[in-house]
Amino acid sequence: MNPKFKSLFEEITLPNGVVLSDRLGVAPMTTYAGNPDGTVSDEELIYYRRRSNIGSLFVSACIAVSENGIAFPNQFVAFKEDVMPRLSQLAAAMKSNGNKAILQMQHGGRQGQPHLIAANETVAPSAVEAPAGKPTPRALTSEEITDIIRDFGETTRRAIEAGFDGVEIHGANTYLIQQFVSEITNQRVDEWGGSLENRLKFPLAVLAEVKRVAAEYADEKFIIGYRLSAEEYSQEGVGYTIEETKVLTEKLIAGGIHYLHVSLLDFKKQPHDNKDEGSIVSILSKLINGRVAFVAVGSIKKPEDAVAALQEGADIVVMGRQALIDPEWTEKVKQGKESDINEMIPKDMVDHIEIPTLMWNMIGASRMVQQEEVKS
Q1: N or C: which end of the chain has fewer CB within 10 A?
Q2: DSSP 8-state assignment for residue 82
Q3: Cα separation of 51 and 53, whole Å?
Q4: How far apart are CA 207 and CA 275, in angstroms?
Q5: What's the alpha-carbon Rg for the chain, to the nearest Å?
Q6: Whose CA is closest to 83, among 107, 97, 103?
Q7: CA distance 69 to 114
Q8: Which of 175, 84, 74 is nearest to 116 (CA)?
Q9: Which residues belong to the active site?
């Protein structure tokens, strides 16, 4: 192995004493390929097992914690007892190479899809119309908010029973938890809305419930992570800035998370409102200051990119698109064959990289295939 990549394979110890054998992992990616009954499919098991040697932190696609929160076609779900056998098989597949299997938990909120939900409606903190022609959601009642918090806890219990090493609370990418944090989508006037303190109550209540259930059903080695989007700037306006994310980060650390995962398209991205402090990764890294592990994602293609992300301030680097394209990425780096890493899918590998058919079609994976050069 090239010595300049040595930092990627250093151990890291999480706050609960769990030791990860390297600084690499797989980012959560929606598969669109579950069975019609909400269970994990055979294709998904093969897909996950194939990518279990990329790094020590392997985060699953997001599982729907509540029936009224389904956000994707063929999304796997946690709110039925009969999903357990397949969920256990998923945990086993993900950690088949000794890595830690993390189940990401999500509620779609207004990003849900009514035709996939029994009540044929979406719910959210407030009845704010969603973009892209999606229907206006119904505002959640206080009782329903409490029920969803319990659903996150119940999903945690099922994750423990299925054999997962931890869970990741999905507070990013405009789903329900972020909708509570955002001033755009949270216009409530009760205890769950208004001030920043009130808007942060929901994610912190979810974390507290997850921690409670983990303490009851698992030992201290069970990992709890939280994924966030560091800022919200959209066509609808400014939902929150990185300054508000700093407040949330402090409260999440105080609440007992073991790692914080920032969702980015590029790990070098700077915040909209303050570019003097550097990149989002460096800003949050300085704030965290080693108290919990800091996970970053975004435009990691070559091992040089992964090393650069660590130098930017990340403790662990996870890959999404690149894990799809080249499941042997890490082995190539270990063997000193980093020049063989594929940034596009070679045509002769299309049928050999174990991407589920529905996932291939939904994400447009054909665009990732290496095109032959036109000879002049």
Answers
A1: C
A2: G
A3: 6
A4: 31
A5: 20
A6: 103
A7: 9
A8: 74
A9: 175
Above 80 in pLDDT, residue 372?
Answer: no
Q: Coil, strand or helix: which one is 63?
A: strand
Q: Which amino acid is at 207?
A: L
Could you report how far apart the first and last alpha carbons of the chain are, in Å?
Answer: 38
pTM: 0.96
Nearest to 343 by CA among 313, 292, 297, 305: 305
Residue 263 has pLDDT above 50, yes or no: yes
Torsion of CA 157, 163, 166, 171, to 10 degrees: -60
Q: What is the pLDDT of residues 226-259, one digit of tens each?
A: 999 999 998 889 999 999 999 999 999 999 999 9
72-124 confidence digits (pLDDT tens): 999 999 999 999 999 999 999 999 999 999 999 999 999 999 999 999 999 99
* Torsion on CA atoms 217, 263, 114, 366, rounded to nearest 10: -120
User: Which 3 state secondary structure label does DSSP give 167?
Assistant: strand
Which CATH code is given to the segment(s) 3-368?
3.20.20.70
Q: Where are the domains of the chain?
A: 3-368
Q: Please enumerate in sequence order all residues whose Cβ is within 8 A of that of 235, keeping only pairs 6 or more positions apart, or say none.
A: 131
Q: Where are the alpha helices (DSSP H) in the chain?
A: 42-50, 84-94, 142-162, 176-181, 196-199, 201-217, 242-255, 280-288, 303-312, 321-325, 329-334, 357-362
pLDDT tens by residue, 325-357? 999 999 999 999 999 999 989 888 888 899 999
User: What residues contact residue 249 under an 8 Å CB cut-off, 6+ apart?
Assistant: 228, 260, 284, 287, 288
> What is the rounded distance in angstroms from the CA atom of residue 221 to the CA atom of residue 106?
22
Q: What is the mean pLDDT of residues 37-54?
A: 97
User: pLDDT at position 352, please?
Assistant: 85
Q: Are 5 and 307 in contact (CB under 8 A)?
A: yes
State the pLDDT at residue 375: 39
Tokens of 342: 């594929």
Alpha carbon 248 to chain centroid distance? 17
Residues constituting the chain:
376
pLDDT at site 364: 82
**Average pLDDT of the segment spanning 30-45:** 96
